[in-house]
């Protein structure tokens, strides 16, 4: 993909697209397949840069992984089959690879070194380093293990009961995976709000017993994973860009096929409904472990709302595109309790506010979110940037559908991280 793109207004968006596989689930399928015994086949795997970083890291630990367009095959030899990597584990731009893999290598009897790109080097890791140290792993890294590069010496661990200060599926997953490497003891994670539960669901699909209640999840150590086949649902976080586009571009109607609607991820649907969008959800019969639906959206009159509390973890990755949605809603939209935005691929409070302001939006950042006042006619004739953040890039590309003058988008290739055929889909729908 070219790094600079000139984007212009569209008359309407119309048609049907199949959303690419879920990023969170694709990562987990490769990781769990790698520590399971036997052959795991993964279909609808997301061929984005982040998930390919996970593939490359586990190959470096001796796992046989074949990637083809139709299916990714992982031949695992159990946890014991992982080998000490001779090379650095490079996670690229991927926070999920970093944090979940830390939980896995913490329980393996070898040394490994994790490094990533410029953005990863700024993302906080002590939220994982600290609990893993409490379990017995030896971890060092820049600023006492807060940032990459990280060096980890793993081995037999002891269980903990951990009250996580943040609602984070990456933290929860790292601790549960490490918990599998304790001797028959229960490891429990308690969160302030429920985060996405893909790890819990997928561990069960791999034959592990996981206990869950409203805000906690736990596993007993010593359980092993048995290979299984995984169909990855379409990523609702990717679908979100076209859901919003369908709602705000005049005269549009878009059908999105096979979208994952795990209830821990559907905050964007709640927001669209609350704002008054015309949206239809046609749920498929419950799939093996993650629910799926076809979703139809059309242009709608929208009103501003407040988004806060428990809803935030269910839509944390969708906030950039929700901010754009709010510019087209009548009245004020307030987003709060979302300070986690500051430690994503970019500081998403800053990048959303700066780039949408360049397009004429009325938006101001707060300490834990933003306030947007609509409805605003967005203007083009501006140069904006993704700042290397895939979700900022896609949000700006959807904004360009509305502006009379074109927009120049810098660093557009960042979008490859989670949605490599995003522009193909956008031009297919553009009429
Ligand atoms: C993810 C969890 C979320 C999310 C990220 C993917 C995961 O991060 O923002 O894109 O796959 O577990 P946090 O766990 O930091 O909230």
UniProtKB/TrEMBL annotation:
Q: Enolpyruvate transferase domain spans which residues?
A: 9-426
Q: For this UniProt entry, what's an example GO CC term?
A: cytoplasm
A Pfam family the protein falls into: EPSP_synthase
According to UniProt, the reaction catalysed is:
3-phosphoshikimate + phosphoenolpyruvate = 5-O-(1-carboxyvinyl)-3-phosphoshikimate + phosphate
Key word Transferase present: yes
Q: Where in the cell is it found?
A: Cytoplasm
Q: Its Gene Ontology biological processes?
A: amino acid biosynthetic process; aromatic amino acid family biosynthetic process; chorismate biosynthetic process
Query: Which residues are named in the active-site annotation?
Result: 317
Gene3D superfamilies from the UniProt entry: Enolpyruvate transferase domain
Q: Identify the residues that bind 3-phosphoshikimate.
A: 23-24, 28, 168, 170, 317, 344
Where do the TM regions start and end?
Answer: none
PROSITE patterns for this protein: EPSP_SYNTHASE_1, EPSP_SYNTHASE_2
Binding, phosphoenolpyruvate:
23, 95, 123, 170, 348, 391
InterPro entries, sorted: Enolpyruvate_Tfrase_dom, Enolpyruvate_Tfrase_sf, EPSP_synthase, EPSP_synthase_CS, RNA3'P_cycl/enolpyr_Trfase_a/b
Keywords of the record: Amino-acid biosynthesis, Aromatic amino acid biosynthesis, Cytoplasm, Transferase
Does the keyword section mention Transferase?
yes
The protein's GO terms of the molecular function aspect are: 3-phosphoshikimate 1-carboxyvinyltransferase activity
Q: What is its EC number?
A: 2.5.1.19
Return the broad EC class: transferase
The pathway it acts in is:
Metabolic intermediate biosynthesis; chorismate biosynthesis; chorismate from D-erythrose 4-phosphate and phosphoenolpyruvate: step 6/7
Q: Which HAMAP family match?
A: EPSP_synth
Q: What biological function has been recorded for the protein in this entry?
A: Catalyzes the transfer of the enolpyruvyl moiety of phosphoenolpyruvate (PEP) to the 5-hydroxyl of shikimate-3-phosphate (S3P) to produce enolpyruvyl shikimate-3-phosphate and inorganic phosphate.
* Entries under NCBIfam families matching the protein: aroA (TIGR01356)
| Quaternary assembly | Monomer.
What does the similarity note say? Belongs to the EPSP synthase family.
What name does UniProt use for this protein?
3-phosphoshikimate 1-carboxyvinyltransferase
Classification from the root reads: Bacteria, Bacillati, Bacillota, Bacilli, Bacillales
């Amino acid at each position: 993909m070219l790094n600079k793109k000139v984007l212009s207004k569209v008359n309407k968006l119309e048609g049907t697209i199949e959303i690419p596989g879920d990023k969170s689930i694709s990562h987990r399928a490769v990781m769990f397949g790698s520590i399971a015994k036997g052959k795991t086949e993964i279909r609808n795997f997301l061929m984005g840069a982040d998930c390919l970083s996970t593939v490359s890291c586990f190959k470096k630990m001796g796992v046989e992984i074949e990637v083809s367009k139709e299916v990714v095959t992982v031949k695992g030899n159990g946890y014991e089959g992982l080998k000490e990597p001779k090379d650095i584990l490079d996670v690229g731009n991927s926070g999920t690879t970093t944090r979940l893999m830390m939980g896995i290598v913490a329980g393996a009897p070898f040394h490994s070194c994790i490094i990533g790109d410029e953005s990863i080097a700024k993302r906080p890791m002590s939220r994982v380093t600290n609990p893993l140290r409490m379990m017995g792993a030896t971890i060092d890294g820049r600023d006492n293990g807060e940032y990459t590069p990280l060096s980890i010496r793993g081995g037999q661990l002891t269980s903990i009961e951990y009250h996580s200060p943040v609602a984070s599926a990456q933290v929860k997953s790292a601790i549960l995976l490490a918990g599998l490497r304790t001797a028959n003891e229960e490891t429990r994670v308690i969160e302030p709000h429920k985060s996405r539960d893909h790890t819990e669901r997928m561990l069960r699909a791999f034959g592990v017993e996981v206990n869950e209640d409203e805000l906690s999840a736990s596993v007993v150590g010593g359980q092993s994973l048995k290979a299984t086949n995984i169909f990855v649902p379409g990523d609702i976080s990717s679908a979100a860009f076209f859901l919003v586009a369908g709602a705000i571009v005049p005269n549009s109607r878009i059908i999105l096929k096979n979208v994952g609607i795990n209830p821990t991820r559907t905050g964007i649907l709640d927001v669209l409904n609350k704002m008054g969008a015309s949206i239809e959800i046609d749920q498929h019969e419950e799939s093996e472990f993650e629910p799926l639906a076809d979703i139809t959206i059309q242009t709608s009159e929208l009103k501003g709302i407040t988004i806060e509390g428990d809803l935030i973890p269910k839509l944390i990755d969708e906030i950039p595109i929700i901010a754009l949605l709010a510019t087209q809603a009548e009245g004020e939209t307030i987003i709060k309790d979302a300070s986690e935005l500051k430690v994503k691929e970019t500081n998403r409070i800053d990048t959303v506010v700066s780039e949408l302001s360049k397009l004429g939006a009325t938006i101001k950042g707060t300490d834990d979110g933003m306030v947007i006042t609509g409805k605003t006619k967005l203007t083009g004739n501006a140069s904006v940037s993704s700042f290397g953040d895939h979700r900022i890039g896609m949000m700006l590309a959807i904004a360009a559908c509305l502006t009379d003058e074109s927009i120049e988008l810098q660093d557009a290739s960042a979008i490859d991280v989670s949605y490599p055929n995003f522009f193909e889909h956008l031009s297919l729908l553009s009429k």
